[in-house]
Design goal:
mainly alpha
């Protein structure tokens, strides 16, 4: 048990000396440093003895500090304060790392996942569009074939209708021409009959007139 206490006291003393050499301004309070500047040796020794609770190593450290001239010690402490490397920078670095980890978990990872998912969705849509390009081309070819067939069918129907209409018109024209010719022939025949009758009537009248003239000119014997 005593060996353990001595080892603990020795470790505490070593740690204190290391802290004093690395960061005097934090290891020794400001009041003690002010008392060092004023050469208040007894009070400093008592406080150091109080801080370093009874142990042989602590007493030796206090005696060494007491043996050192106070102005020189204060000057060394002030010079060491220029190189005051404490745990502030590691703490800031640790906080920065923790902040980066938190941002990565909270913001960057979800954002990256969202961007990746969106990129994958866009790529999938582009793939679907590329895959359907063949179907679109096939549908366009089918539509062109249907339109071509429809045009051919419509053209054939128009030609057939034109032929039928032309034939019907020719038939009607032929019938009309025949009817007109028949009516004309009948009219000409009627006119010929009337002319003959008129000539006959005229001949009879001429004969009567000639007989009358002869009877008037030549007296009867």
């Amino acid at each position: 048990m005593a060996i353990t206490v001595m080892a603990s006291s020795s470790a505490t003393t070593t740690h204190f000396l290391r802290r004093c050499s690395q960061n005097p301004s934090r290891a020794i309070p400001k009041s003690i440093r002010a008392q060092i500047a004023r050469d208040e040796k007894p009070l400093l020794i008592r406080r150091l003895t109080t801080l370093l609770k009874p142990s042989a190593a602590a007493a030796a450290v206090a005696a060494a500090i007491a043996a050192t001239p106070m102005p020189a010690l204060a000057e060394q402490i002030e010079k060491a304060a220029l190189f005051d490397f404490n745990l502030t920078l590691p703490a800031i670095a640790l906080e920065f790392l923790l902040l980066m980890v938190a941002l990565d978990k909270i913001y960057f990872t979800p954002l990256g996942k969202f961007m990746y998912d969106r990129d994958a969705a866009i790529r999938a849509q582009l793939g679907d569009v590329k895959d359907t390009s063949g179907e679109v081309k096939q549908l366009e070819e089918q539509a062109a074939a249907v339109m071509k067939a429809a045009r051919a069918e419509i053209s054939a129907a128009l030609n057939k209708m034109k032929k039928e209409t032309t034939a019907e018109l020719e038939q009607k024209l032929a019938e009309g021409k025949k009817k007109v010719e028949e009516e004309l022939a009948e009219a000409l025949a009627a006119l010929e009959n009337e002319r003959e009758e008129a000539l006959k009537a005229l001949d009879s009248q001429i004969k009567l007139l000639s007989d009358e003239i002869v009877s008037k000119v030549l007296p009867s014997a």
